Amino acid sequence: MAATARRRDGLDAQERMLKEAMAAIAEDGLATLTMSALAKRLGTSGGHILYYFGNKDRLLLEALRWSESTLAEERRALLTRRVAAERKLDLFLQLYLPVGPRDPRWTLWIELWARTGSNEDLRAAQAEIDVGWQEDLASLLAKGVRQGRFAAGLDTGAVASQLLALLDGLSTRVVLGQHGADRDGALDMARAVAARLVERA
């Protein structure tokens, strides 16, 4: 009983750290997030955070996983909604795109992408997260085909990959604050491309 309580306390402590890390990234960007700065926000020590995560890369990866787990739940709920396939696809696009230039999830993605070349753990974790998005989008498209809402014979895996590549590019532009890039414009472009890719003859 006591061991279970300790594990629960440890998981709660980790979640508080991850939540605070995401909040810090949203407020001040990733460059200012250090173990000592995060420890100060939490009222603890840098060593305490290192006890749970070991290093900054691991902290960032676990923060991304924590954030993505929430989105995975939203995706699963979306896939079971009783709405038209076109509407479901639109909601998927909205869920994927960043909320704006300070989106902490997308800030983390961009930072960790740059580190995957030399870090096998990061590369494997990112691939695992990507597969979830790919499989869910392909499933959504396949259901739309079965319902006659999308083109018959649509290569759902290929179209899912194309859409996700487009969304990654649009999301990066939004998060980096490139001139003329904002969420509304990115969503409009994603909608237009998605409509062309799935349209019936």
UniProtKB/TrEMBL annotation:
InterPro entries: BetI_C, Homeodomain-like_sf, HTH_TetR, Tet_transcr_reg_TetR-rel_C_sf. This is TetR family transcriptional regulator. GO terms for molecular function: DNA binding. Residues 34-53 bind DNA. Keywords: DNA-binding, Repressor, Transcription, Transcription regulation. Pfam families: TetR_C_6, TetR_N. Coiled coil: none annotated. PANTHER family: HTH-TYPE TRANSCRIPTIONAL REPRESSOR NEMR (PTHR47506:SF6), TRANSCRIPTIONAL REGULATORY PROTEIN (PTHR47506). Residues 11-71 form the HTH tetR-type domain. The keyword Transmembrane does not apply.
